[in-house]
Amino acid sequence: METALQLTGRQKFKDPYKWLIVALGAVALGFAVHSLPMPRFDFRLMLLTAVTMLVSSRFSVQIPRVNTSVTVSDTFIFLVLLLYGGLAGIMLAVVEGLCSGLHLSKGLGTGKKILIVSFNSAMMLCSRR
Questions:
Q1: Residue 101 to residue 113: CA distance in whole angstroms
Q2: What's this model's pTM, rounded to 2 decimal places?
Q3: How many other C-beta atoms can be found within 10 angstroms of the C-beta atom of residue 125?
Q4: Cα separation, 36 vs 1, whole angstroms
Q5: For helices 86-104 and 14-35, what crossing angle results, to 10°?
Q6: What does the DSSP 8-state code read for residue 60?
């Protein structure tokens, strides 16, 4: 019985935690835009961005002996970081977080959908910084 009470006590911190991550993501994005040089945008970057948005966030690779997986979009974001620099990689991570959040939040109400989409986007940004 006490375990159920402790779990519900922790549940009340779930939404404020998500909004804190969203705020930290917005601060990190603002810092990145302010401090990093602007990348050169060309056809290859646009092609990598399109592939990342349309295809790669749906596929993941399970890592053996560990309870985690790596999505193909993580690989493309890392590739953009290497080829085009930090700002392009950060911006791609934000957009990929928005797309995966929209994919995950189908069927939810508007308030929950906004929270999930912005949380996923900020989480992708904070994990790359």
A1: 8
A2: 0.66
A3: 24
A4: 52
A5: 150
A6: E
At 87, list the tokens: 């700002």
User: Which tokens sit at 35?
Assistant: 């401090």
What are 5-30's pLDDT values in tens digits?
455 666 677 778 878 888 888 887 78
Query: Domain coordinates of the chain in residue numbers?
Result: 41-129
Q: Which residues pair with residue 60 across a beta bridge? A: 71
Q: Residue 82 and residue 4: Cα distance in Å, rounded?
A: 46
- 55 Cβ contact list (under 8 Å, min separation 6): 72
What does the pLDDT look like over 41-80, one tens digit per residue? Answer: 788 888 888 888 887 667 777 788 877 777 788 888 889 9
Residues 6+ apart with CB under 8 A from 42: none
Give the ranges where the chain is alpha helix by DSSP (H). 2-11, 14-35, 43-54, 72-84, 86-104, 110-128
How many CA atoms lie within 13 Å of 66's alpha carbon, on the beta-carbon side? 6
Distance between CA atoms of 84 and 81, rounded to whole angstroms?
A: 6
Nearest-angstrom CA–CA distance, 81 and 127? 13
